[in-house]
Amino acid sequence: ATFSFLSIFHLQSIITMMKQAATLFALVGSAAAFAPAANKQSSSSSAVQAKPFEKELGAQAPLGLFDPLGLIADGSQEKFDRLREYEIKHGRVSMLAVVGYLTTAAGIRFPGAEDIPDGLGAFQALLESKDGMNVLMQMGAFFVVAEIVNRDADWLDNKAEFVGDYRNGALDFGWDSFSAETKLKKRAVELNNGRAAMMGIWGLVTHEIMGVSILPGGYLPNH
After folding, report:
1. pLDDT value at residue 16
2. 191 with 85: CB under 8 angstroms?
3. Burial of 141 from C-beta contacts in 10 A (0-12 / 13-18 / 19+)
4. Apex 192 CA angle, 188 and 193, nearest 5
5. Burial of 143 (0-12, 13-18, 19+ CB in 10 A)
6. 103 and 109 in contact (C-beta within 8 Å)?
7. Quick check: 59 and 84 in contact, CB under 8 A?
8. What does the angle CA 57 – CA 79 – CA 70 come to, to the nearest 5 degrees?
9. Per the CB 3.0–4.6 Å rule, which of 13, 159, 197, 222 could disulfide with 94?
10. Cβ(53)–Cβ(65) under 8 Å?
11. pTM given for the model
């Protein structure tokens, strides 16, 4: 009963947020439709004026440089690099999250974890047993180690090739053998896959809470 109540509450909250967002977009669109047109001279100067970072990796069609809040409008390279690092890191974590979510939804488990449910229900199940608590502690230890390792080691005599390059002179896997064009392409692929994964895991978890399946066969984790 508690789970059903929470599910209904989350569903109502999400629907309310969606309605508010739709109203906001409608108001913005209406304001833009009836706004007076700028004169030709100012339009020409705006088109010629370059935006900071509009040529950076990730600023691509159809949106180009997408910065609706103006977070990097001041042209600060330090701020841009910091936000790019956040984006890459969240994208990498989200890619792992999507793979893990779909793998457990397919019924694949580690030996001894066959009875652990998939989806968000896994956390509650792990908290209910001693072995589950050990698993959670191991996960926590892994997160700490991963956070320590996955960063540019300033104390080493090497320089990161780009933001998000955490090889620190120890890992390569053939990266240095690629051409500059291939490297740029692979970095763009990772960035786009990370962006898709961030939306993907958000969508999977949201639909699980709502009780609406988006998986093949209508399967719904944790139900």
Report:
1. 53
2. no
3. exposed
4. 115
5. exposed
6. no
7. no
8. 80
9. 197
10. yes
11. 0.73
List, for residues 3-44, the tens digit of each pLDDT value.
333 444 444 555 455 545 555 554 444 444 444 444 444 444
Q: Are 163 and 88 in contact (CB under 8 A)?
A: yes
pLDDT tens-digit readout, 162-193: 998 888 877 778 888 999 999 999 999 999 99
Q: HSE, CB side, 13 Å, CA atoms: give it for residue 73.
A: 6
In Å, what is the CA distance from 152 to each residue of 95, 143, 167? Answer: 21, 17, 8
Q: Which residues pair with 64 in a beta bridge?
A: 60
How many whole angstroms separate alpha carbon 52 and alpha carbon 56?
A: 9
CA distance linking residue 94 with residue 191, whole number of Å: 11
At 121, give phi and psi (nearest 5°): -65, -15
What angle, rounded to 10 degrees, do the helices at 2-34 and 180-210 form? Answer: 120
Q: How far is CA 2 from CA 7, 48, 203, 222, in A?
A: 9, 58, 23, 14
Among candidate residues 182, 163, 165, 190, the one with its CA nearest the CA of residue 95: 190
Amino acid present at 85: E
pLDDT per position as a tens digit, 104-127: 999 998 888 888 899 999 999 989
Q: Which residues of 180-209 are buried (b: 16+ CB within 10 A; e: fewer)?
A: eeeeeeebeebbebbeebbebbeebeebbb
CA 10 distance to own-chain centroid: 21
C-alpha closest to that of 206 among 195, 220, 218, 216 = 220
